[in-house]
Amino acid sequence: MEIKLGKQLFDLDFHPWSNVVATGDISGKLFLYRYAAESQQPQRLLEVNAHKKKSCRMLRFVNEGRAIITGSEDRSILAMDVETGTAIARLKNSHRAPISRVVNLTESTIASGDDEGCIKVWDIQYRSCCNSFNVHEDVISDMTFASDSMKLIGTSGDGTLSVCNLRSNKVQTRSEFSGDELLSIVMMKNGRKVICGTQTGALLLYSWGFFKDYSDRFVGLSTKSDLSTNSVNALLKLDEDRVITGSGNGKISLVGILPNRIIQPIAEHPDPVEHLAISHDRKFLGGISHDEKLRLWDLDELLQGTGNTAKNNSAVSRSDSDGMEVDNSIPKPSKGTKRKNAGKGLSNSNTFFADL
Is 13 helix (H, G, I), strand (E, B) or coil? Predict the structure, then answer.
């Protein structure tokens, strides 16, 4: 099924327990739709002008789906009630640069990244900044969170990967320059592998605890059959062995990890894929592109012929007591730019949320 919005879309997220999907567009509007397998046209539940005249770049459901967080080009973070569409709080000037990424950490914390490489952690309950890590020199393209070890892993357009330890409030390590822009990230193999998508279409595999350099490189998606780019803009874990990739040529593929192989293409957008998400019951795959449409596919139908349907395995990250080796130093950026201060530690006094 398709939802035509009329403007370029930037992100999407599924509600954690209800058949509701949210998306935001370039004009700053936030949309919520209710979908059903038997219905061809989803029902619009909500349309909110969340960020006036500035793009609504990122969004995530929080607080068990009762609220939604949005991040914008205007550098603000908005918390909104899902039922009423009313603003709960707005975090103005949360970053020095436009917000590029928002991810959930715990029930009460989120992380945000911006266009200049800064990552911040926010306490939703107390509406304050807990940590600030100025670790990259280019846009924060993606982040993922290892909850067992409380480590936030980020990728950047500067071609490096960083690991921020939220227990010690320090940047634990930063990779060497990979030779490519890192655009997307996902954890696989029960947390033992971190997979990064790149601008040239290669998948870089990092082993947990050894983040200085990637251990494997899969280039099966980077073979160009036309003039379009094959950049891997989106990665979505299906299970511990398979990942769904969204590429700059519009193709959505199912890829096996270790052994690395393209299992098969499963869907396609006419324009570059920007983001992918799976519904709470794992029945629908959602995707957005540059064509101003939100698409929802039946996941079981997409996976027919791949050997089996989606496994409902959750990622389990390795804990600090695993005995794994970790990098102890943070290399200087390979692009010749001096690294900024790594982490500023806890700063509960930095309260920016203002009730509306």
Answer: strand
